[in-house]
Amino acid sequence: MLMAVRGPLAKIVRNLSPFWRRELGFVGLLLGFGLLLMPFLIYLAGVLTLGPYEGGLLAFLGSLMGAVLTARPSAWLLVAGPYLLFTAIRLLTRPLRRRG
Prior knowledge:
It is a single chain. By secondary structure, the protein is mainly alpha-helical. The protein has one domain (2-9, 18-93). It has helices spanning 8-15, 18-36, 38-50, 56-69, 73-93. Helix 2 packs across helix 5 and helix 4 (56-69) crosses helix 5. The longest helix is centred in the C-terminal third of the chain and has 21 residues, at 73-93. The chain is flat, with a radius of gyration of 17 Å. The two termini are 24 Å apart.
């Protein structure tokens, strides 16, 4: 997954252990999901349950991306939410996994 990394980061990524490379892949994939797909799903859920958003989809996306760029914790919690949920599930199910 991370084999496409080029440039100055390539050497750093190559020196990481397989565990950290896999974890970096999870972070990239789930943060990308949180940044690119979650806002559309949240907008859709809001429109279906609460009615139209004042200004429409572009206004919603603009305010959300503005909040992300100004480092508002609520916006970053939304973006990091999929990774945080994934990590919580992994930690909670860790005792149930079989040891190989």
